[in-house]
Design goal:
It is built from 3 helices and no strands. 53% of the residues lie in helices and 0% in strands. The longest helix is centred in the first third of the chain and has 16 residues. It has a single domain, classed as Non-ribosomal Peptide Synthetase Peptidyl Carrier Protein, Chain A, CATH 1.10.1200.10. By secondary structure, it is mainly α.
Length: 86
Amino acid sequence: MGEIDKKTLENELRAIVSEITEVEPEKITLQAKFVEDLGMDSMMALEILASIEKKYKLKIPEEYLGKISTLSGLMEIAEEFIKEKE
């Protein structure tokens, strides 16, 4: 990945998810389920998507929302769109 490495991306995305869900960052593991484990709802998911788009200057279609169930999945999608942009 160009200017951003995986660990940095993971930490930045974790910070976004933490801020929006109000869950401590250390509880947001790569495999923690956003809805079941962190109590995320669809409004939070939209906010997270919007924050990522703004931070990385991306456009991620809303149909990707359903695929975002863990930090790991969120990273894959973010990486995919960051690569496309480069």
